[in-house]
Inverse folding.
């Protein structure tokens, strides 16, 4: 099944720019990577961060600035953005990781607001105007990224790498420990696993990959703006993940496609889009709690006649109940 | 440091907002023995446990394990020193299979768990050992069953297998037979007897029948203090202990 997933994914990725508008697909891929990175934390570690836009946005600014002002080549600029997100992840993580449930979400939100404030007031970010006119440049010095197909396949490669890495992390011995922590944290601790350390590393990995998505986005659209660091973006990625299916490997991708498509298809409705997306979210929470992919998996399982295993979704839930107990 | 006692506490105190849950407890656990901690409800047994395994920091006092002062260690640190605990309620990883549960224990011992870039297949090398441990507790045929689907007694057996995967020197068991039917109690008692060979066990236990059959030495706690200590015959005839158990339960 795993191999088929990859074949389908790569085939779709290769064909997509001939069917859809390439820039739109690139946007889909950036947000899909962002949501997958976020899901590494929410779905596979059980931590709800409400400040992931800080990593996405800071990386976008850092990539944009290093390419535009310092004249970094594109690939190095993206790397710089990713590294900034990684460092920011270490700082956020160190401060927030010992908090549980809603407190963890609040600390990450507060820290992200600081980043937003810095972006708003600093001169290098361009404040309200954003950082405009980032040149796409040439990949490895000879592939012209102003050609949208070249740019597209570069983005696709980044996305596939990020997605592969996340799948690998989930499957790795490290991922097993994350699963154990999610299932029974005191027990994991009593077996000698330094739980805080595992959570911190998962947090930093998630931040770094979110940064990779943000930096790539800055190059695709040739700008970074306050929207990228705004709390609304942090909310959006939660929504994408939940709509697609938290704790499933492809769910966040499907969620990101759904939400981004809704936004672009319904853009003629102005701010009503927010209402529509909100209603979609409510319906999702009320009717299919496992998210699109989660429900499909459940359906498949039932068709094969196997008993239900996982409870409906929200990996953040056990933490909340644990605190009350 | 191969002392006679593997675990020694002196003047151990734990206060919760003015309430003294553990009051100057001096405990000596002899190497290689099965030591039971008993007492009526609220005597502070589980608190002592949490202090020993560092799930709670003590207010005062000292804990020496194998000659090392572990008073300020973290739970993960004491686990690495070979002191592994179980919990009052059965503590498994519910949506992992029995094999995966035991493998978590083996993985903790073998290290390398931080390598997030490695394939999950590298863990397959632990399967042989995991199956062996499952066999030791009679769970071999349940290797691929999710822990949540196992009956209660088998969950406890699985928990013990997971703990044994770490090859602990000192095993701390918090009420291993709690909530079990009579036949399960018998099976777990036999199992504990077998796994205790070559190790030290400190257990909190309500079932005095189990304590009588297993424990070499018993410490009775009441209101956070040590009320009596000795072997089963000494403790069960101690008038203070009989009073503490309302005159009846100690004879049960």
């Amino acid at each position: 099944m795993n191999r088929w997933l990859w074949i389908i994914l790569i085939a779709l990725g290769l064909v997509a720019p001939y069917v859809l508008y390439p820039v739109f697909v690139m946007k889909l891929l950036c947000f899909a990577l962002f949501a997958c990175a976020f899901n590494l934390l929410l779905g596979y570690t059980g931590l709800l961060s409400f400040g992931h836009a800080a990593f996405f946005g800071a990386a976008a600014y850092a990539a944009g600035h290093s390419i535009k002002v310092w004249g970094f080549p594109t690939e190095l600029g993206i790397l710089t953005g990713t590294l900034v997100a990684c460092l920011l992840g270490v700082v956020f993580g160190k401060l927030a990781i010992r908090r549980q449930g809603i407190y963890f979400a609040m600390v990450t939100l507060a820290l992200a607001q600081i980043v937003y404030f810095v972006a708003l007031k600093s001169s290098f970010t361009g404040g309200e105007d954003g950082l405009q006119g980032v040149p796409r440049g040439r990949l490895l010095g000879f592939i012209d990224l102003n050609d949208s197909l070249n740019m597209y396949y570069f983005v696709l490669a980044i996305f596939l790498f990020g997605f592969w890495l996340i799948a690998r992390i989930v499957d790795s011995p490290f991922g097993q420990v994350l699963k154990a922590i999610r299932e029974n944290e005191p027990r994991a601790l009593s077996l000698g696993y330094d739980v805080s350390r595992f959570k911190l590393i998962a947090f930093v990995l998630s931040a770094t990959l979110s940064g990779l998505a943000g930096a790539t986005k800055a190059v695709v659209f040739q700008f970074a703006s306050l929207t990228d660091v705004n709390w609304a973006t942090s909310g959006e990625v939660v929504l994408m993940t939940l709509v697609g299916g938290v704790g499933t490997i492809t769910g966040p991708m499907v969620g990101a496609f759904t939400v981004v498509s809704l936004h672009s298809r319904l853009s003629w409705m102005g701010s009503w889009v927010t209402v529509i997306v909100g209603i979609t979210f409510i319906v999702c929470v009320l009717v299919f709690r496992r998210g699109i992919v989660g429900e499909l998996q459940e359906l498949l399982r039932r068709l094969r006649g196997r008993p239900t295993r996982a409870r409906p979704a929200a990996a953040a839930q056990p933490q909340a109940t644990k605190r009350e107990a | 440091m191969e002392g006679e006692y593997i675990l020694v506490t002196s003047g151990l105190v734990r206060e919760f907002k003015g309430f003294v849950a553990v009051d100057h407890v001096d405990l000596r656990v002899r190497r290689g023995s099965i030591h039971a901690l008993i007492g009526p409800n609220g005597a502070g047994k589980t608190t002592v446990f949490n202090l020993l395994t560092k799930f709670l920091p003590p207010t005062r006092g000292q804990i020496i394990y194998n000659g090392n002062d572990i008073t300020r260690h973290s739970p993960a640190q004491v686990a690495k020193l070979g002191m592994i605990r179980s919990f009052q309620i059965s503590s498994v990883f519910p949506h992992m299979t029995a094999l995966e549960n035991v493998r978590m224990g083996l993985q903790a011992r073998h290290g390398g768990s931080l390598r997030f870039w490695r394939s999950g297949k590298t863990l397959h090398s632990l399967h042989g050992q995991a199956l062996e441990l499952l066999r030791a507790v009679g769970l071999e045929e349940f290797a691929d069953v999710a822990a949540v689907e196992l009956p209660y007694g088998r969950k406890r057996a699985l928990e013990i297998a997971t703990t044994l995967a770490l090859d602990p020197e000192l095993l701390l068991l918090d009420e291993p037979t709690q909530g079990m039917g009579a036949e399960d109690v018998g099976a777990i008692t036999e199992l504990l007897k077998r796994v205790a060979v070559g190790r030290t066990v400190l257990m909190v236990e309500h079932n005095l029948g189990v304590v009588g059959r297993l424990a070499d030495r018993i410490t009775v706690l009441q209101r956070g203090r040590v009320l009596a200590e000795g072997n089963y015959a000494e403790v069960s005839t101690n008038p203070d202990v009989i009073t503490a158990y309302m005159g009846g339960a100690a004879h049960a």
Remarks:
- The interface with chain A takes residues 53, 55, 74-76, 79-80, 84-87, 91-96, 100, 103-105, 107-109, 112-120, 122-123, 146, 162-163, 166 of chain B (CB under 8 Å).
